[in-house]
Amino acid sequence: MLKVIDTAVPIACWSCSIGHNDSTLFCPHCSKIQPPPGGDYFQVFGLERAFQVDLAALEHEFHRLSRKVHPDRFARAGEIERQWSLADTALLNDAYRTLKEPLNRTEYLLKLEGAEIGEEHAGKDRKGQKDPSRVPADLLEEVFELNMQLEEMRMARKMGATDPDLQASLEQAKRKFDGLLVEVDQSLRRQWQVWDEGDAAARHSVQKTMVALLDRRRYLNNLVRDVTETLGA
Amino acid sequence: MAESTLNGRVVGIDLGTTNSLVAYMQGDTPVVIPGVDGLNLVPSVVALDPIPVEGGRPSVTVGNTARKALIETPERVIYSVKRLMGRGLEEIQDELKLFPFRLADDVEAGEVPRIRLGEMKFTPPEISAYILRQLKRNAERFFGSPVTQAVITVPAYFNDAQRQATKDAGRMAGLEVLRLVNEPTAAALAYGLDRAKVGTIAVYDLGGGTFDISILKLRDGIFEVQSTNGDTHLGGDDIDNLLLTIGLDEIHAEHGVDLRRHPAAVQALRKAAIDAKIALSTQQEAYFDIELPNGDRYQREISRAGFELLIEPVLERTAGPCKQALADAGITPQQIDEVVLVGGSTRIPAVRQLVDDLFHLAARGKKPQIELNPDEVVALGAAVQADILAGASKSTEEMLLLDVTPLSLGIEALGGTVARIIQRNSTIPASATEHFTTGVEGQTNVAIHVVQGERELAKDCRSLARFDLRGIPPMSAGLPRIEVRFLIDADGILQVTAREQRSGQQANIEVKPTYGLTDEQVESMILDSFDNAEEDFAARLLIEARNEAETILAAVDRAPENPAWERLSGEEQAAIASARDRLAAVNLGENLSAIREATLALDHATRRFAELMMDAAVTTAIRGKTMDAAGEDMGHEVTAPHPMAAAEFK
Description:
The complex is a heterodimer.
Chain A: E1 10-12, E2 19-21, H1 41-44, H2 55-69, H3 79-100, H4 102-112, H5 122-130, H6 140-158, H7 164-197, H8 200-232
Helix pairs in contact in A: 2-3, 3-4, 4-8, 5-8, 6-7, 6-8, 7-8
Chain B: H1 3-7, E1 10-15, E2 19-26, E3 29-32, E4 42-43, E5 45-48, E6 60-62, H2 64-72, E7 77-79, H3 93-98, E8 115-117, E9 120-122, H4 124-143, E10 149-154, H5 160-172, E11 176-182, H6 183-192, E12 199-206, E13 211-219, E14 222-231, H7 236-255, H8 263-279, E15 285-291, E16 297-303, H9 304-316, H10 319-329, E17 338-342, H11 349-358, H12 377-390, E18 400-402, E19 409-412, E20 418-422, E21 430-436, E22 446-452, E23 462-470, E24 482-488, E25 494-500, E26 508-513, H13 519-524, H14 533-558, H15 570-586, H16 592-605, H17 607-621, H18 627-636
Parallel strand pairs in B: 1-10, 10-11, 12-17, 14-18
Antiparallel strand pairs in B: 1-2, 2-3, 2-4, 5-6, 5-7, 8-9, 12-13, 13-14, 15-16, 19-20, 19-22, 21-24, 22-23, 23-26, 24-25
């Protein structure tokens, strides 16, 4: 993805050729807009890497930076300025979109830290779910039962029949999995805090836990979606 | 580019399915610019004039005059062309059944469809360009200076191809399109201008041919779109078609006349259907009364209740997108502070009732926002955005619009599934980087298929582009690492760049749109070049001034026939004659200001004659009315009973 650099590298402004700090959006000498700075999404907002983010402050900074770099501010500028405004704003928007949403942020930071995360695309999720090796061990029995019921329900629907018992049972299952999702989110938040406040060793140990929690969350989420779709069909 | 172009005005254009408008920012208020007929709405109707000029560009008429031709020469007129913008042959089959679009028969699959108009053929962007050119001219006439930059609105749910087609139309009309703005967002800008609002608003936009719903968060001048949804083929046209179908079927059953074979009669019935629809927004019943080609009359009453029952399925189709937009924004209907209604179809009481139900308005003591004219609000908002882009105004300097992409962007993966790389409702500009590799030893090309839409399979989504990454250095299978960057720009249009990372070589990619015009095709269809705007404009002003001069000269030449002429003194008659000769002389030359001055001088010299003539006309024609009322009557006429056409320039 993005190259990660620790310290700012001095580069030259495209317009006035005077060297400047890589992390700057505007040349300190001629004030012209610069190409997207290197660094990760956190650096875009001047933040340290952390799982816990002050969302109100993030939004405020997003709006402040948008006002400065948005293409609307450069509609009648030269071609180079328009090009960098577009690139800078795309980076800003991508960064904001990733950081404001807790799961995207968690996945993104884990990847930055070198963690291996399985599935990326929503389109692949469904197939992943059918893979029995990915079923969390403690849920194997229930998931097996649930899939049977879902199949039964779909068949019943096709035949135009209703089965109130089955319906009630599925609704109960949905409530249970919803509850499990809440539990996963709570555990994730606890791990966030451990990571944000811990040293390298502590971070290393919770990273694995978080990857597992994300997997579990994705799995549960797909289950709930399937149940909701079947119930609502 | 000339300095004056950079500093020229940026206008806001609403290029609608039914009507189009152009507006600008007058101080801190957006204002619609009227056309030559004094009306704000320019019907989006284009008519090919009866006798095309030999060898030259075809001569076309746009707007109300074109609409009149719809009844007399329907085969030379086109309307609702927006429905065809950016769409392929197989996508428009449904439209062809409902609209009298006459497709050219030599169009091949994958080509931009061409529409027959009389003996000529045009692509949809060309037709739209004629409408845009008319709006551009209206603005130029109004300002007295060239207009070369514009903001054009598009339905929020327009896809990449439809947006590109709109931009192409702008270029053909000699306009640099500084931004495409989504219609509901533009409406929000128009509403949010004079109040520093904080809150969440929904814009429900049911126009002639498209439906959009957008949910925005307003804060400190920032208009941040949270989600948008819609249907690009749902609008007032569908309602008209329901009424039309009833009429056609009943006429066939009761009178044995198949009106479908009489295009002019179908147009007359369509007009009656539209009139009935409009009447039913304020009355409990409306009537059809049509004379049929066989001399029979088709008469029918339509009650509002019956009408509402008829259109319920159409209106119900707006509910799904509204619910999806709320879900995507992660809010409940109760969290919407205000609902803004846009588009002529929102005048229908049943639509307002539906909106009320969807957003629980009455239950919360609220009403939908309808203060701004729903036909004009989008153009007014476009003018606000134009002002923001011009960057020279205090009233909009704190405003910024952050819009989103309405549809997810994906690439076709193995097995025809879609791998989404940019989710719908992502703030634009937005980008995604993907890596590709080869599957075969020594492979030098990789094909990528980009699609837009929410469906799981690529074949169910809109195909945006197929392109090849070419010139990959031959390596073992799986070794090349090609980085492809997809970027949706602020207009909602996709840009693609790629490079091979292992060899550090910039891959030579060709981006070939699945549909749409090539740059060369667009170039060849340009109506007015904006590079030559200054010269073109000067030439046009000269032509207009000469026409003006010809008109007044012809009137003066007929003056002695009028009894009022004898009432002028000899000196007055001589003054007119000398002013006449002076104008006739300069009108042969190229000097614009001399022609204008001489025209004004002649107009001035004939003023008393004009008054005498008018007195006579008034006393004979408007007996029994007060002078005030008579004056008002004349003021409203497009052609006031003034014998001399008044010179219109300053």
